[in-house]
Write a structure and sequence with these properties.
heterodimer; A: Elongation Factor Tu (Ef-tu), domain 3; Rossmann fold; seven-stranded mixed β-sheet; B: alpha/beta; Fumarate Reductase Iron-sulfur Protein, Chain B, domain 2; FAD/NAD(P)-binding domain; 16 strands; about 15% strand
Chain lengths: ~280, ~500
């Protein structure tokens, strides 16, 4: 039952986990997510995008960045541990179509959910350009996996420690200027990155899909905590999304809503680190 | 409002019962009418706003007997017509009046599977008790026989007995039925179908079964141990419960029949998509659907701030929009979470409020401030996008609308500001789109509700539906009634093959 089969650290506070979940593995499609809860009585439910799935092995791959208490505890799980509750696959799958050239932009941990989408776009016959960005070299993930499928892979870091010294919007703009223009852009990463990717492609009128990861309780349409304003309408990320037209999303409102529990989240995460340090001191 | 003294209530009932039992001649209607109405012992408002425990503590055996003896046992029994599942109300009251609680609960269980639930959450004053001859004779519906409270008492009494009376399960038939959703409708179908000896799997999307009884209705009104007991009973009967399973996503509905070998499916997924007001500022930080607020507090136990990982906002000044039970639940939960001011804003008057009278009364006792004939116009935020105030409009009642209720009409230029940091929207739910999105072959109406025939059958072969996904937002007892009907159809289908 939802046993961890494999675990790998990808970067500081970023971990890849392969979890046994046969039903989800056979049904999941690119773009979908799961909700995870570690303790049935008191645990929090958090949404995590599925990075990969293996129906034969009956496993799904998740990439987790420890940002709060729950993600911190997920990152602490080891091979053989059991996740009490996983539900999914949730959300509407990505619309995969042969369009010509497609540019896929991934920022930070967002590269993980971008990978199956880029792969599916490639498999259906698109030329796929992948742009990966992170603050610095240590935070670049899934480089090999992306290299295997991309027709062109561009890597950039904020500090120039690897690849181009640039934000992802730099190469994205350059790609948009090419002739022919890309038929579509897909951007997944921190909200601020997706916002600026959408702003970059807007003047070129390149349709831009973004995948949103908002606060959710149930993930099935019931709580409305995930709602975002898209083209002036309220939409639910869990059932109407998670992917939307990036040119219509009100990112400022979304970022404000994402920050609703930030102080509590940070405090809880801080406590996790303190607890760990205390444990380590005790052992010594 | 003075709060009755619990000890006094209990002592009075003992004395009253002794007097009745000591009588030599049988009770005449005149005598029954003279028996005092039994108030239910409750936590005082001061006590209960500081905890999450159930408000009403329940009758003592003596109180249940005295209250039951108020029933005329009239021939017409109009109360039965008022009950969606047609409980033999005079029958169980007669048994309870004699102190034969086993007989009373057995009579109820012939028609109802969830008496401990219905006794607590049914809107009795608009159903059975509305028609009660005793209430009519006293010219006060609030003095009708407290059918719901006696029902609750005998259900709780049974739960305390060493010997549980498990429903009989017929020998295995080898047939399989999937029940999607473990709320009131699903639980009812699971029990009724299992009794016929069919294998039943109950699928639940959440990590805990119980549906709205678990995530929506707060502990102080619907203790979770009671929901747990109903689920445990199903398990003991041999029902398999699969949590974390979203039919439509984890497995397609059609696959359940075509690949997984289920002979029939019941869909009872509820009305799960919260409605919003479609006003300016509704997506500001601090605006919640009642579903979200209540799910955080109940299912995720966020009220237990020390142990629960799920956060809940530190609401200080709260406005709740709506006048139904969910609005009362949200307002009273906010009170218990420590809000300084809780305002309930409703655009009609108290008479039109759909909430149970008891919940309205409890909310007022707990300090919820009622604003009738007012409604939100927009929500105003600060620079960080957090709720700062709600602009409201005053209303008056105009001509009756199609539903016969007088239509609320906004009074021009009556805007005013209500300073709040939290707005909870409790104006109802739309049907959850998941089944519709993932099962294009199932027929739905323009509101997304699943269309069924008089047997609860959908447009899909072997697929039945009931509860809020069919009715739109309704009540536990109606969901149960729908479930019983669909279960009967499923049992009939399987028996005919």
């Amino acid at each position: 039952m939802n046993r961890i089969l494999f675990k790998k650290q990808l970067a500081e506070e970023i971990f890849e986990l392969k979890v046994e979940a046969p039903l989800i593995a056979s049904e999941r499609k690119p773009g979908q997510f799961v909700m995870i809860q570690l303790d049935t009585d008191f645990g929090e439910r958090v949404p995590l995008t599925i990075a990969d799935g293996d129906p034969e092995e009956g496993s799904i791959t998740l990439v987790v960045q420890a940002v709060g208490k729950t993600t911190h505890h997920i990152a602490d799980l080891e091979t053989g541990d059991v996740v009490e509750n996983i539900v999914g696959p949730l959300g509407t799958p990505t619309h995969i179509e042969k369009l010509g050239t497609v540019v896929c932009v991934g920022g930070g941990v967002g590269v993980a959910p971008l990978h199956p989408i880029a792969k599916a776009l490639k498999e259906i016959g698109n030329e796929v350009i992948v742009i990966i960005g992170a603050r610095s070299r240590e935070l670049i993930i899934f480089e090999e996996e992306m290299k295997a499928i991309a027709d062109e892979l561009i890597i950039c870091t904020d500090d120039g420690s690897y690849g181009m010294k640039s934000l992802v919007t730099g190469p994205l703009e350059e790609v948009c200027r090419r002739d022919p223009q890309p038929a579509m852009a897909v951007a997944i990463g921190p909200p601020i990155m997706m916002k600026f990717c959408a702003e970059t492609t807007r003047p070129f009128e390149v349709p831009t899909v973004v995948s949103l990861n908002t606060i959710m309780v149930d993930g099935t349409g019931m709580c409305g905590g995930c709602r975002v304003t898209v083209g002036g309408e309220t939409r639910f990320v869990c059932v109407d999304g998670p992917e939307f037209d990036g040119h219509l999303v009100d990112f400022d409102n979304m970022m404000q809503r994402l920050g609703a529990y930030k102080p509590m989240e940070e405090e809880a995460h801080e406590q996790c680190h303190l607890d760990k340090e205390i444990e380590e001191l005790k052992e010594k | 409002m003075s709060h009755p003294d619990n000890t006094q209530l209990v002592e009075d009932a003992k004395r009253q019962l002794d007097e009745i039992v000591a009588r030599e001649d049988p009770l005449k209607p005149k005598d029954r009418l003279a028996i005092p109405f039994q108030e239910i012992p409750s936590q005082t408002p001061e006590e209960r706003i500081a905890n999450m425990d159930e408000v009403a503590l329940g009758y003592t055996p003596e109180q249940a007997r005295v209250e039951s003896l108020r029933c005329f046992d009239c021939k017409k029994a109009p109360c039965v017509d008022g009950c969606p599942v047609r409980l033999d109300i005079p029958g169980f009251l007669r048994a309870a009046g004699e102190g034969d609680f086993r007989e009373a609960i057995d009579i109820i269980k012939r028609n109802s599977l969830l008496p401990a639930v219905c006794g607590r959450v049914c809107p009795q004053e608009t159903q059975c008790q509305l028609h009660c001859t005793v209430g009519k004779s006293l010219k006060d519906v609030n003095k009708s026989v407290s059918i719901g409270r006696v029902e609750r008492f005998v259900a709780d009494w049974e739960a305390e007995q060493a010997e549980q009376d498990l429903p009989e399960v017929k020998p295995e038939t080898g047939r399989k039925v999937a029940v999607v959703g473990s709320g009131p409708a699903g639980v009812t179908v699971a029990a009724d179908v299992r009794r016929e000896g069919h294998a039943v799997t109950l699928f639940e999307a959440f990590h805990k079964p119980g549906g709205v009884l678990m995530y929506g209705i707060p502990e102080f009104r619907m203790p979770k141990r009671i929901v747990q007991r109903e689920i445990d009973t199903l398990r003991t009967m041999g029902v398999t419960v699969e949590t974390n399973f979203v039919v439509g996503r984890t497995r397609k509905l059609s696959d359940l029949i075509e690949k997984d070998g289920f002979d029939a499916v019941f869909v009872g997924t509820g009305a799960g998509l919260p409605k919003f007001m479609r006003i300016e500022g509704e997506n500001l930080v601090g605006v919640f659907s009642a579903n979200e607020f209540l799910t955080r507090a109940n299912l995720m136990r966020a009220y237990d701030r020390k142990n629960a990982d799920t956060p809940i906002s530190n609401a200080r000044k709260v406005a709740v929009l709506g006048g139904g039970n969910v609005a009362m639940d949200a307002a009273r939960t906010a009170v218990r979470l420590g809000a300084e001011e809780v305002h309930l804003v409703y655009r009609r008057t108290e008479v039109e409020m759909p909430a149970r009278v008891e919940e309205v009364g409890h909310a007022k006792e707990e300090g919820v401030i009622f604003h009738i004939l007012e409604n939100a116009k927009r929500v105003v935020g600060d620079e960080q996008g957090r709720v700062q105030a709600m602009e409201c409009l005053k209303y008056e009642l105009g001509e009756p609308d199609d539903s016969g209720r007088r239509r609320p009409v906004a009074i021009p230029d009556s805007e005013f500001m209500m300073p709040v940091d939290t707005v909870i929207v409790a104006i109802g739910n739309d049907s959850n789109p998941l089944i519709k999105q993932t099962t294009p072959e199932i027929e739905t109406n323009r509101w997304g509700n699943i269309v069924v025939n008089e047997n609860g059958k959908t447009s899909m072969d072997r697929v039945y539906a009931g509860g809020d996904i069919v009715l739109g937002a309704a009540t536990v007892i109606l969901a149960m009634g729908e479930g019983r009907r669909a279960a009967a159809s499923i049992n009939e289908l399987l028996a005919s093959e």
